[in-house]
């Protein structure tokens, strides 16, 4: 997955972008980049492996700072394609001048697009599908930046939120299905775009509205222009953004993530109660809101039974060997005084492979819990995502391979309850219609990509 | 402050120590170090500025790994003395062989000890008071390692938990007042010591007991020996460890930190209710338990209104200028949907200077809160700490200079309530007696150090 | 300038390439890169700013090692375009599979090539003219790799030595003028190409022959194929390679650089004697051979009067301010005992701006030299190079702006003698015909590039 | 070995020291350090593993810059003790204030000094014998800084040049034998000390005189005071400094190193002629002067047959395996055109283990040399050095174990000639008396140290 951020009209656009990316770090920790125009209008890009904070702008500060237009990107990606070549923004020079592009999402016809472009003589210097969009923009003969983007996006299928610099224009675009979120804000007159509203908050911008599915917005010295040049389709906002991916302090898809998770938790309590349980706790921090909702609805007290180490991710520490569950202990610890002798409800937002969950259950039992009732605030994940989330192949998804009872046994819980698909969709703001739930339901809004394992072309994120 | 960890009898003592330090990172982020015996019994030390995880053991791995005895240290310290010379463990060679020492605490007669040693010809290669203890051990003629430590500690005043390697013996010592916590554990027969029990958990060790105030424990091939060679004094365990410093998943001073904070929060609700408030929230994560206790006792619902960025501290990002409250925004964000139009109770564990609190209150109001009722789960901090916590001088402590009303106005809240001294002491496990509360009450168990500003000699942490 | 190296048929091609690049470091210190096929035939590229040795292959070792085909590049370039984007090899994927390319030289119709490609929809992700060649190869429909290269090079003007990986074929190409050197060697059956023969020596390869001007050589599993698909032109080998650029232990253009410099020095002695001088010394190390030749021919004794610091270039040390000549002192020191009271001949290979020379003369005088007779083993440089050497603009070239007497006065010598153009050309192996001497004579073999300041498109080097 | 530098009375003493150390880099590449007084007179030290240039002063610049007094140190040392703890200068605080010390040399009674100090209760935080001197200064009750140093040095045996900061006084001291060089200079009124005069040159200081064996010089605000408080002994200047260690542009022991090497080469030609040889060449760069002297005296032409890679030492490149002589090829390359078919004289300054020489001879033969006559401009090394040079144990010294014929066969030469002991001593300035030649002659001026393998305590230089 990725996070994107852009601003036009601020006297230090690159610095604002760096700050914005910092609050989108949870959307991608592998690489970070900023492309900005300098005071003379020349484009520059800086990219680094690792976190935004690790000195992204330090060296090139002088180069990037002072310009009024910048876009940025944080990227997570599968191991194979983990190189600087695949960091974004992509910056290219073409007939029509420079093009810089940051992409969140994944194209489903990337193979075809690439093939077509290669046949026309194009070369690719990364394995990202995003590069195909840059080529298409470069080849467009349309007159305005937004028209070039619109033309380029005809025939592009799948998920994308794009921030594009063409000349001195900033263009934002969201695919007709609207899989990924994109919000628009105002920072003392400067126009800001971001994957999530928490990035508006950190820079002190005011939330204005969402960029709509199928919308292309252009911002230049004249002001803001909007158009809907793409075929209208029913929206398929990713329900998993509400379930797990977005930050709880964000507003996406026109609703609050925290409120979504609270509702998911309450619905979970209704669908899968745990009568007789002494307490409810979350796997911090992504399921805090859901666990609170569960506790509230079930009338069971909410406890802080697991502590998440504040330094997670800054470390490559390997636990001492020979100890199956030590990996989980590096990230979490249980509070014995809370758990000892109790029958407990452990709430998590989702279960992917099940290995972390199994380790956590073992930890909770070792801390004295008498009974462990696992409750999951989403439906079972039974298929991969083709729209930008890096879920593993079906073979690794525990719920794609085992029955409820088998999963419960495998992870070592007394009882296990997942939220129903309907319950999940009914709980998120503006649901139940208009959401993608393919990885839960198998109901994919597109045919699978030609090259679903992404091994050849990778993903745009 | 500092965290200390030691293990004797494990086949990869240095690796275990690194893992243990990782969970004591909250006690000191400035530098980290490990001293260990290699397989041949030779001592080596590695020290780095920065976090445990940033490659502490990587380079010297070959050197340190494989030995059975290691101690480690994480250090926080005031800016002035922030150099590698002041990182611990101290490793020295003396008449009696090598001595390695890791210290948590602060000596109150450091100036005098140092003067005395310098008069006797000693040289100091750091500004840490801990170095004086090493000199004194080196000068002791006592026969056993523990007797040398005991002799060295006669006349040493103030706060210390020590882990010391002398030859192949690991000695643990805690001052007679017992200001700082020190626990003892068992890892498949290896003896482990740590500042907090969370470090036992991460390495998979079992909690055995606390090292007692005034106790000196020696561990060698023969086994474990305990003695109480120091003058007995009434204990003065630091209440602030329960209030803020220790991790909630730790057991210190014979009680659970989480339980302590829950009780503090409940007592706070009793002493300073907030009738009519719609919800309670914490300043994450240190006041989560207290806020939950408050909510429980007050019967007001608990909410997650502030989100703490997961990447805090990994960054040196500076917010864009000209914006008073932007510093707080880099670390926290408010959830508008939770706060809008509500009368809220904001619980924090303590207020030191008040600047962060003021920024948070402004953020909470900007997110729409109608009324803000600040509740603090400790008494007002009115004086500095001489026993190992880096609180600022009296001039910077807001509660030392302003009245309750003035503080409320300064931080911008509608009402402000602190827990009473008695309420605080009654809430912590094994309280109200036996605790230090000097920074809250002015009741210092020792005369102030000769050189209280620590500028000349620094602190042993 | 740049150095290039490639090998096909060796079991650890990337490691061999790294070693080869290490001996081509003098041709470019700004960035270094290697592109290699892995054991599965997949291409990967690693690039770094800085020297070859600074860990180029360390991280990605696992990725690159073990494959049989690799090419590499060391790059020096002007400040403006000093970014990783401009490091080589370029690696791209196209209709016909992957293309990796390393280029030494500079195209003179880069602007036109780029314009044409952009008009056809191409995008450029660097400012290097080399990228245009990759595009042209990608667009070629020819059947064999070498035919694609040959087709791509039609219409490409200026200087290039190229090493190109297409599929599993390694193609080497040299422009019809042959400005830059390219040699071919044999390493136990593996075919090796390198800018200079010193790179064959370091890897233990045997020199086979030069790649000829206008030649395209293809190496695949079938063996080696050669062709001359480009229009034949009179050769214009860069005389400055012999004068300064190549390493003295190299064989280039079919002759020894050391022998060339010795002959240049001898001819210089004949043309510009220094009767009455006590000794001859070189500005180490590039003019060592020439100075020795001068001494030999003139019958004056050769001395080591200047010492070049071995750690030059590893440092960014700035001399203390306020001292005009201190910059030179960081790199060189004079030997007073050699110079004191003597009339000396100082031999250097060339004078560009004259600032270093002025500093050296001052240093030599300060060490007691009575008379300083400067002798330069090349003709005066009066114009820029458009063929791959980073000489400055005419305005900065001292010999383009001052008369001989003025230069002598400016640099502070008693007498100054340059080698004549004819003397220079007659001294180099296979001369006087067939060499470029444009920067000395103004006789440019091509029209100047449209964009001679290279500001827009940079150079392929 | 080590290099030391100090300055008092310059407005940016630390920057001057860094520059001076840069030209003493050949004396030690393992670690570098500077201790300086800040503008307020407070001492600070910075130390780093690696080269001077790699950012020594960058971070702490603000701390160190601006003060008038600084000393510095470059250190080479045996692998075992390669840690930052052993980097110098040592900075300590004692009864009498701060003491900073930089040491070049090696004490021969380090074990005894250390034992005595440990018995008196001292602790050691490094394995350097230099630390013992700091302790002894700290314990001295003498009144002036120089008297404290003089008192401390009574009973200290072996080799030392010391630069010591005590309060605001800079003290320089050289042992009575004068094994290591130490020069004194003047930089616009500031007093400068350095191991070699090349460090005076780089900072622009004027050579004043050598610090004499047994002399203690003190510099403070009052001026310069000199004394000879140590027992007078016959001088034993290290002849190997002239042979190999010092830089040829330095003046040490009152004579020019270049002139010494020239004379050594000429004498070698007289003692071991090579009738019939076609040419003479050096193993660059340390034997350049000697080879030139040989050529001159023998009337054989001097050639540049070996080229030394300019980037040596900046690299950790490992040649591809399976190839015995590839290690030598990373550092040197032969010039075939010079060597082919010729009978050659190869001059080197010394042979230690013989492995590099064997590789070079093989390289020279592979380049076509018909006959190889090895000539060494020093006597055979048959024993270790106890006075500060890191020669290996006797077992590894080729000349301690093999006869002349055996060595010739082992390294693969046609003939081999070493300079005689007498010839060597007669050639160096101020010789033949007053020099140490123990490693050549076995005539050690002191008993061997108690702990000659230095394994326990390491060496002070
Ligand atoms: N401070 C927070 N409180 C609650 N949830 C959070 C917080 N920060 C991040 N999250 C949620 O947790 C998810 C994962 O965050 P991340 O920092 O990567 O932690 P983890 O290591 O648990 O995956 C985010 O996508 C977001 O939904
Ligand atoms: N995961 C956690 N949950 C709750 N409290 C925590 C957690 N981690 C640390 N703490 C508490 O917060 C205090 C400060 O932790 P730290 O990581 O330094 O965060 P902060 O930036 O808030 O100071 C710790 O001393 C501990 O009491
Ligand atoms: N060891 C050597 N001996 C003689 N000449 C050399 C040597 N190494 C490099 N050169 C020559 O000197 C030129 C410049 O080399 P470089 O290492 O960049 O040094 P400089 O700093 O003097 O420019 C090279 O292009 C080559 O011709
Ligand atoms: N530029 C130079 N010319 C001649 N001799 C030098 C030069 N620089 C250093 N030396 C001599 O060579 C010795 C070794 O120098 P160093 O740079 O360590 O090279 P090496 O790798 O050959 O050991 C020095 O002690 C000095 O005597
Ligand atoms: S498949 Fe799942 S993760 Fe992917 S977009 Fe649809 S709901 Fe979201
Ligand atoms: S003064 Fe305060 S912080 Fe210090 S030990 Fe006492 S209670 Fe703890
Ligand atoms: S212009 Fe000069 S430097 Fe350039 S190729 Fe011609 S001779 Fe060489
Ligand atoms: S033993 Fe050899 S190297 Fe050591 S000081 Fe004496 S002459 Fe020099
Ligand atoms: Mg989670
Ligand atoms: Mg807090
Ligand atoms: Mg030169
Ligand atoms: Mg040598």
TrEMBL record, chains A, B, C, D:
Keywords recorded for this protein, A-Z: 4Fe-4S, Glutamine amidotransferase, Glycosyltransferase, Iron, Iron-sulfur, Magnesium, Metal-binding, Purine biosynthesis, Transferase
A Pfam family this chain is assigned to: GATase_6
Gene Ontology biological process terms, A to Z: 'de novo' IMP biosynthetic process; purine nucleobase biosynthetic process
Residue stretches making up the Glutamine amidotransferase type-2 domain: 2-222
Biochemical pathway: Purine metabolism; IMP biosynthesis via de novo pathway; N(1)-(5-phospho-D-ribosyl)glycinamide from 5-phospho-alpha-D-ribose 1-diphosphate: step 1/2
An MF annotation (GO) of this entry: amidophosphoribosyltransferase activity
UniProt binding sites for [4Fe-4S] cluster: 238, 385, 436, 439
Function (record text): Catalyzes the formation of phosphoribosylamine from phosphoribosylpyrophosphate (PRPP) and glutamine.
Protein name as annotated: Amidophosphoribosyltransferase
Organism lineage string: Bacteria, Pseudomonadati, Gemmatimonadota, Gemmatimonadia, Gemmatimonadales
